[in-house]
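Researcher: Last one for today. Full complex below.
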Amino acid sequence: MKLNERSVAHYATCDSPADHAGFLRKRVERHHHHAHHHHATSYQRRWFVLKGNLLFYFEERESREPVGLVVLEGCTVELCEAAEEFAFAIRFDDAGARAYVLVADGQAAMEAWVKALSRASFDYMRLVVRELEKQLEEACKSLAACCKSPRRSSSGRKRHLSNPALLPLQEKPAVLENGYSTWGSGSGVPGGAACPDRDGGHAKPPPLPPRRRSAASSTVGSPVPGISPAMPESPVSPETACFSKLHSWYGQEIVALRREWQERQKMGHL
Amino acid sequence: AVLKKRLVKLVVNFLFYFRTDEAEPIGALLLEHCRITKEEENVFSISFVEEPERKYCFECDSKEQCQEWIEALKRASYEFMRRSLIFYRNEIQKMTGKDPLEQYGISEEARFQLGTHKQ
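Model: Here's the assembly. Have a good evening.
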């Protein structure tokens, strides 16, 4: 199965902040046909990086590309009854998918990982966003209702409802219409927005990208206002079957995969 | 360029593509740090930050279908959602003085902070 590996590796290693990172020991999974033989369970120490709903792992902390990727959709993260202390597992709803058993350095590390991973799914994020959208709409409505009735303007100290002039509704962040998620760079110009290494985004939050004026953005249409109606339903239906395939492809450490292909080539297999 | 007919499925921040008669995808595109562009009639392209000249082009059956896909894909990245969340959180906080994430017990989560998060 093809994947835009280069972009994936870039996303994994660029300066956009990780949601969590650290060393974990990963249990080596045996193939099913080995199940009858007794192999000692072994673990490999890997550097794990969580970005959004993607858990990458690298051979070394400085490695330039990940050797594995786990898409955290349709999965549960649970403490594990392994012989190892501080072990937890990522298990998928799709019964055929392999589980990932990971071991942390200590109690605190384990708890932090379990917490970070269990909230990592795209679905969870989407749920929270929708909830906040609703809340914002309601807050605006009640504010509008307040403004209709005459109000004495406050002494200016109140942060919120009293002074309509302070309504933040005028800000229409271009971020809502910009699908170009560049970290730290405001430019939407192709080639001009490589993931920045300059300030690495350390000091300040990512700036909101300016509205793109190039012709390419003309399809954006009217800006999405701060109180947009619920985002249109995208044609999405989480299906973990697709991800199992992606996992089993990517999960076999790439090095091993390449070796296999090379052997097969040598043997004249197609 | 040769265009091949594919079944295309957007699943969270991945775009899977299939040969029309097969159940297993032949490929996927991770939709992070990417740009969706309307090309000519009924065509849109996806390109990535680190290789902007390389475009994955898709031809749709209609102008409407094309627009639908562009809208959906622009909102498909996790990073887009994160920014939306941070924006809404901020707006609600400004308007009501309350942090809406507190009720979920997630206000301290690194992923929802405005600033950079430490590892």
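Residues 153-238 of chain A have pLDDT under 50 and may be disordered. The helical segments of chain A are 5-13, 107-118, 122-148, 240-251, 254-266.
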